[in-house]
Amino acid sequence: MAECNIDDMNPEIYNYVSEKLFDVGALDVFKVPIMMKKDRPAVLFSVLYKKQNEELIEEIIFTETTTLGIRKKVIDRVCLNRKIKIVSTEYGDVSVKFAYYKGKEIKYKAEYEDCKALASKYNIPIKEIYEEVARKIRI
């Protein structure tokens, strides 16, 4: 994990940097509001990545943000097994990520982009798409 405190960057830039980091293999990028010395508001900018992507991650952070330094930590990451399945609804197909613990399905999550596209296409609230996916899974 790489992280840095940033207190002097235009906030509009964070999304651009995050997208670039995801493009080179970042597993997650997150930002947390913090207070630095002299009570200056700042952002704790954190990036999770695999070791093989470290050099590219560092390059982007140094060249695209205002930070002068990066803290690095080695962390363990435990993930559930996942499988993407297509669920057919009355509005169209939705990719759904199912998660398994010890071989047992324990949760699922409809993919936001699929739900958003269908909600826009049919001009209905996105929650209706999520609810339709839930109904189809329970059948």
UniProtKB/TrEMBL annotation:
Q: Does the record bear Ubl conjugation in its keywords?
A: no
Q: Which keywords does this chain's UniProt record carry?
A: Lyase, Nickel
Q: Name one GO molecular function term.
A: lyase activity
Q: What is this protein called?
A: TIGR00299 family protein
Species whose genome carries this gene: Clostridium grantii DSM 8605
The major lineage groups are: Bacteria, Bacillati, Bacillota, Clostridia, Eubacteriales
